[in-house]
Amino acid sequence: MKINTNGLFRTLLLAAASIVALGSCSGGGGGSSSVHIEPVTFSIESGRIPQNQTVKLSTETEDADIGWSYTEFTESDWDEAILNANSEITITDDCTVYAVAYIGSNHSVITSATYTVCPVPTSVKFYIGEEEVTETTKLVASGTKVTLGGSTSAATDAEGNVEVPEIYYSITATANLTEADCTEENKYTAGTEIEITGKTTIYAIAKGVNGVSPASSITFTVPVVALTDLPVENDVIVISNGKTTKNDVTSTVVMGTGDKSGAYGYKNAVIDSTLAGFASTDDMMRLTVKKNKAGQYLFITDGKYLTTTAKEILTLESSPSIYSLWTITEGEDGIFYIDNANLYSNGTQMSLEYYKSKFTSYTKGTSSAYQFYFWKDTSVVADKTVLPDSVNTLADVTFSGDTDGSVVAGLYIYAECDSYGADFYYSTSAEVTSENYTEATKADGGEIIIPSDAEGNVTVYALAVLGTGDNAMFSKPVTKTFTVTEDTNTYLTKVDSIAAGDVVSIFYPEDRYTLGNAASDTGLAGSAATMSGKGLVKTDVLVEWTVAKEGDNFVFVNGGKFLTATSDGSLTLDAYSKYALWSLEDVTGSDTKKIKSVYSVYGTNNRYLEYYDGVYKIYTISGSETLYEFNFYKEAGAAAENVTFSVLDVEFSADGVVNTGTKIELSTATSDAEIYWQFIASGAETAAMTAATYATAGTKYAEDSVPAITAAGTLYAIAVKDGSTSSITSAAYTIAVMEKITSDDYSTGVETTNNSKKDSTIEGNYYTATLAMGTNTNNNPIYYSSSPCIKFYVNNTLSIKSNGEKKINGIQIVTAGNSNDGTMSLSTTEGTLVSDSDNNLTWTLEKGTTESITFVCTRKEGSTSTKNPQYWIKEITITYAAD
User: Which keywords does this Swiss-Prot/TrEMBL entry list (predicted)?
Assistant: First the structure.
């Protein structure tokens, strides 16, 4: 760029330049001096200087600009030079700097300084063994040793010897070192090994006669490695889900820091197979392990405690509660189960769970969702949070039962504490403390008995205790005073068996709740029971049930309504039906009973009465069986409700399209009832029987008088007991159209020449059946013989297709056996495979619509036979829905 000789433009142009020159530049044009301007001076005079030294240019003339160049210029041609317009220069090589100060076209004399660059040391290098580490962050095994070196210098001393720079380092610094850090304390001795046991940043710098090297640093981290034992206090751990770890050794899903509304997200950690661990990152949940006196665990990060207060709620809380306490159970293969010490739902402990890409809490299980690994992370410092005293103190004791202040002698009240597993000690004569609790009465199950001779006021002193000896934890002592009043209660007593006419309460002993009659969710709400040494107290909220029997089964009636387990799984009060029938089962080693619904089933399993979180429901037995175990308390002399049973309707074993001759089984849930039936063919003018004519118009159902359907029509039935009848029920029937294929149908027109393959097709009235050849186990062509049976080989297919006039209703294939001496009869309806094969072959239903069904002959999985298996099909019967 040429500088314009116009002074103003040149001044603006030169003032705008701002780049520090790192090399030489070219010259500029001329001008004359009419105003005196002081010359440019240099902050460092000519001579030897360190490499990358900064030199500052200045003039004493106010408002003067400075221009300079590595190329010499004169007063006559300076304004034609391309001058650098900044006042600081970084010297990288030997050079002469020429400078001038100017205002407009007026300028100073030209001054210069010549510099010889003396090199500074090169950067310090880092080594593991003989290998240089070039990464800025390096993952290494714990115990790895690092050495420093590699800094060189071109500088020489007075004797001409090349200098060896001194190296200085620090592992406690927080920023790059400077010359000020080159102290005796930080001096590095050649060959010294720096051992890496956790996250370590090594800062280093070298110093020579001409200055210091560029600063350098590398951060070394050690892998997060799996723990094979329980974590100990002040370990920093990362938790991974066991399922992914066991199935994939290259990566694992660990708990992350992302908040997922009651859960935490996951981080996919890539495992270094050589180091058997993974790098720690800030988006992993790194938890410091602490323990309380009872040995329960706390997991802390950034001063917050991992806590669950409800199902599917996992949070970090700034203050710990009893729900921040966890227990750990060892499983197999290094797996651990992590359970909350105090949070239970209906008797089931709440546990850490990994589900749908989230770490959350859920009722305890043993599946892979509850299986975890611990990984120890030494890359971060353990959380310094000091545990408050509250983590070594149990939750407050409260009382349940009749605790409004008035009690009767002999009444039970119950001590309760949210710290799970605590024992209770009480006295009615002296305060109970951590010092004397062993002298007090232990309240089994929290049961505190008001003395039977108590009068006036009685004071109860109680304390909760968890653990023993030095590890014992205590609640605060609690005191409550009661007024003893006259006993006017009515009591129900526990009975081992019940009979018709009894008036009972259905009692869940684990939570001391009784079955109520108010709807709640899909069940009936329970109510807290009041207990005494005399039995169950009859209170205003206690619901009693009249017991009646229908055959061997029980019913429970309240207010004229029957306790009913519906077919869809609800518990309700309803009119009498078969779903109101219950049976009782004994519980081994217990005085409780299981109460089973006779007719409400899920799949093939009967539903049972169940207590769940204050509500009685019905459910198939799963999980804790105590949820299904109850006591009966009976009120002696109570008036039972009048219970009457209607005769329940007759049910049919089948209806709709049936094969001719199909026998229909009839049944009713009413015990000892007689059944009468009547079949009226379609088009017949016979009148259907009624409750008045069943004896003459119908036939009594018996082993030798089961209705068999041989024509289209309607079957009517009625149940009768003790002069009462059910409603008339009916079912309509249509006879299925049947066609049969026999081996003779396929024995003609089939080529039997060796190695030939030919599909054979049979046309029927309503079907097309194709027997397609495949290949045998040696991949040789299969052919049919002229034997009296159809030979059906591996990979043969039998396809039966409706011609569109009728829909296939069912197929039955009958075989005479196979080459391995097996026999088989296969039947299917609506495309569902009903029976399986024998030893070496299986029938595979490839397509099962009502228009087309195909069977494929396949070798059974795992078979090692080298034979060429075959079935000998005798006949195939196809049924169709009638018009």
Answer: Signal
